[in-house]
Amino acid sequence: MWLGSAAYRLPRVTATLGARTPRTGSTLCTVTGPNETFVAAARAALVERADPVRAVGQQRYMKSAMPYHGLTSPELRRALTPILREVVMGSHAEWLATIEALWSRATHREQWYAALALARHRPYRGWLGPEAMALWERLIREGAWWDVVDDIATHLVRDTLLAAPDVEADRIRGWAQHESMWMRRAAILCQVGAGDRLDEDLLSDVIRPNVADREFFIRKAIGWALRDHARVAPGWVLRFVGRQSDLSQLSRREALKHVGLPA
To answer: Backbone dihedral region of 13: left (phi > 0), alpha (psi from -120 to 50 degrees) or beta?
Structure first.
């Protein structure tokens, strides 16, 4: 592990270390700007593990304008886990500001992934609320590719929606008719993993405006969202698919993959 190695040692910052489980409304410190220790440590850890040869292939595969450092997913987790554990956000505002700083200053795509890792870190789950949705929307629109959009939608947006459905359901309905295809994809996917807490009326409302869309990423998202819900409510999915005459074959095939009937 790189943490504590001769190559790099995590700076000691008394304002942010020591508390392991932040709570909603916690005021471990009064900092409202980004935690620069976290930002610097994350960036240094990514550089230390960089593989320039692999990075070229990753950038080509992902069709990314932003270069990669060349870390695999396990290497990314190993690089970030000690920092997430040791550098604790002192307030909700600091957490949001640090996510924004990592994202907006990114020179390599893994720095975006580091921002999302901080956003998704389990101790901060209680801070996922309506006040963060503007940031998630911004990251979806700026990320505009499946790797970051799907991660945001199926974790950050989903958990926010589940925590405040009365507040967020109408926002998600609006996203489903957004001019950005990636916002529409996020709306369709944001209940993946919700299980029996999924709002079927909302799922129907976000899919229907997009049923006739021929864009691959929309058709695939519809199929994924329905396939995931079919694990819980196969009958509902069968009836819904049967009523959608304009549903693409891709969406239909994906939706019924685990239902046991021909698509």
So the answer is: beta
